[in-house]
């Protein structure tokens, strides 16, 4: 569930975007055109989360905010976790097919798809292609390239997935625990991370590790 509230303040608008995902409540608050502040709260139960959501809506409506149907017109920028074209230059091997730039993130996308951690809207919009992946007719790397154009960003994810991805995948690859695991499990015998083959054996190897990391994160 997403609720958008705005308040006119001179030439800019203040906004509050509330995202409810079971017991997780995410608040994205700021001034249009400027950086927003995002925080997620674990509220224990779904019912408590719903009550808290309604209390926040009432509080902000009393402050002069009003609800809008969507974020259309609001400058709320998603987190870009990765883009395939970020990898084409620099250290990307000249002798490799550009498809290899999609593999490392494509595997993570597959884990998200298997665990149904994308938004309902995203799942509905891409249901035919998602079912092909779930039936193992195509790989998640192919899905990432063909359906997502090699762009992995937060607005396609459920709140829980956003928080875990910020912690584990991280938009800064130099701090990415996922990339550390990926290198250790799949790249020890390869020249670069871009040489990992898009096959089911490699996919299931990294997915098992992600499952373990996710379980630890949930329990922490």
TrEMBL record:
DUF7832 domain sequence ranges: 80-196
Q: InterPro entries given for it?
A: DUF7832
UniProt-listed Pfam families: DUF7832 (PF25191)
Domain of life, source organism: Bacteria
Q: What is this protein called?
A: DUF7832 domain-containing protein
What is the organism of origin for this protein?
Pseudochryseolinea flava
What taxonomic classification does the UniProt entry list for its organism? Answer: Bacteria, Pseudomonadati, Bacteroidota, Cytophagia, Cytophagales
